[in-house]
Amino acid sequence: MRVVVLGAGGLGSVIGGYLAQTGVDVTLICRPAHAEAINKNGLHISGLRGDHQITENICGVATADEAEGHFDYMILAVKSKDTAAALAGATSLIDRTDVFFSVQNNIVKEGDLAKWCGDPAKVLGASTIEGGALLEPGKVKNHMTVDCTAYFGELDGTISPRAEEMAAAFNKAGLVAKAVDCIQQVLWEKLTQIGNASTFAVSTLAGNTELDFVDGLLVREGAEHYVAIARELLSVYTAQGYEPQNFYAPISRLKQIYEIKDNEEAVQTMLGMGKQLQERGYKGTTSMHDDVLRGRKTEVDFIIKPFIEKAAELGLEVPTITACYRIIKVLDNYLN
Ligand SMILES: NC(=O)c1ccc[n+]([C@@H]2O[C@H](COP(=O)([O-])OP(=O)(O)OC[C@H]3O[C@@H](n4cnc5c(N)ncnc54)[C@H](OP(=O)(O)O)[C@@H]3O)[C@@H](O)[C@H]2O)c1
Questions:
Q1: Is pLDDT at 224 greater than 90 in this prediction?
Q2: Into how many domains does the chain fold?
């Protein structure tokens, strides 16, 4: 199998690196310094699966035109704000790649890919929660995984051989994955989950570099805020006919929050989750919070705005997330 990753930073390099370890031929299209470091010394992955120095079946290039040959799959992994520019620079891949999928956190990515390649049949639905962060050129950290970390499926609600093939490739690489007949639901639930965590984190912790996700949940008002955001996002998610599944358990608590009708009980559940995570020594920040801390533009328009737009379409009130969206947009306005 040959795979090209368009925009290999944190997540794309982690996925590409692990796939290369199993014999998949991987080309990472990335920034020149990262490409040079990989071609010189290989890709180093640290984190929850230990240390790996991957030197075989992997290469880095700075542009799509430098990626040689035919590919079975292209994985789009730039931040959503960079999608248009990255795809515009990668048209040479369209005719020499069989299948396109994206691991980005947004709900428009499959449509973007279909429009770009001109053939919706070449686009596979995909979602993952696997965590990757670029530390320095040639080095990434794999900081997060869950029991099932990726899902693949056709957008028409079927399971195809290619969805099963990619799930099998991920499983072989140690990234537990499933082919499913409900990828649209997985995508909306993932956005609900990431929207909940990131909206909460940025609106409570803002620019404080000392605090992480758990610190916000240890404060009663933080837990109340988390639940308020969750309830509004869940109202939009479920109004589309979906029942929360916790696809990304045990991190996801959407099903529990949805089922707990009493607000005080939901707040206590989140305070308890904060305590549990603290006791386990969990340290982590959401990627939107990381963006704010690093002075980089966030994905707020791709992660929160879709809920506000969908709510308007469905006639739902979402005052908490609307207020958070406005606050984050102000921060975002001054980021690069
Ligand atoms: N990281 C995670 O844990 C995680 C988990 C699940 C989903 N996601 C989603 O996956 C997507 C990627 O996240 P990420 O954290 O991996 O982002 P990231 O670390 O910023 O990786 C994207 C990389 O692509 C590079 N890039 C941008 N445009 C490019 C171009 N035209 N050609 C070559 N390289 C280009 C970026 O360089 P510059 O920084 O120099 O622009 C960056 O190094 C996001 O939508 C995110 O929400 C992330």
A1: yes
A2: 2
- Residue with tokens 């929850």, as numbered in its chain: 48
- Ligand 1 residue neighbourhood (C-beta within 6 Å): 7, 9-12, 29-31, 77-80, 82, 85-86, 89, 103-105, 128-132, 134, 287, 299
Q: Verify that 84 and 223 share a domain, yes or no.
A: no
Choosing from 11, 103, 149 the residue with most ligand 1 atoms within 8 A of its CB, the one to mutate for a pocket test is 11
- What range does the domain containing 96 cover? 2-181
Residues 227 and 108 in one domain: no
pLDDT score for 250: 86
Relative to the CA of 134, which ligand 1 atom is closest? 19
Give residue 84 CA to ligand 1 midpoint distance, Å. 13
What are the start-end ranges of the H helices in 99-247?
109-117, 161-172, 183-205, 213-217, 220-239
Percentage of residues in the chain having pLDDT higher than 90: 96
